Amino acid sequence: MADDTPSFDGYSCPLPIDRYPHVLMAHGGGGKLTHELIERVFVPAFRNDDLAPMHDGAILSPGAGRLAFTTDSYVVHPLFFPGGSIGDLAVCGTVNDLAMCGATPRYLSAAFVIEEGLAMADLQRIAADMRRAADRAGVTIVTGDTKVVDRGKGDGVFITTSGIGVIPTGVDIRPTNMRPGDVLIVNGPIARHGIAIMSVREGLSFGTQIVSDTAPLNSLVTVMLAACPSLHVLRDPTRGGVASTMNELAAQSGTGIELDETAIPIDDEVRGACEILGFDPLYVANEGKLIAAVPPGAADAVLAAMRAHPLGARAAAIGRVVSEHPSIVTLRSSIGSMRIVDMLSGEQLPRIC
Amino acid sequence: MKFVDEYRDRATVETLTAAIRSTVHHPWTIMEICGGQTHAIVKHGIDRLLPQEITLVHGPGCPVCVTSVELIDRAVAIASRPEVIFTSFGDMLRVPGSSRDLLSVKAAGGDVRIIYSPLDAVDLAAKNPGRKVVFFAVGFETTAPANAMAAVQARRMGLTNFFLLTAHVLVPPAIAAILGSPANRVQAFLAAGHVCTVMGYEEYLPLAASFHTPIVVTGFEPVDILHGILLAVRQLEEGRAEVENQYSRVVRREGNAGARRVIADVFEPSDRTWRGIGTIPMSGYRLRPAFASMDAEHHFDVGHLEAHESPLCIAGSVLQGIRKPHECPAFGRECTPERPLGAPMVSSEGACAAYYRYGALNHGR
Question: Is the separation of the CB atoms in A243 and A312 below 8 Å?
Answer without folding.
Answer: no
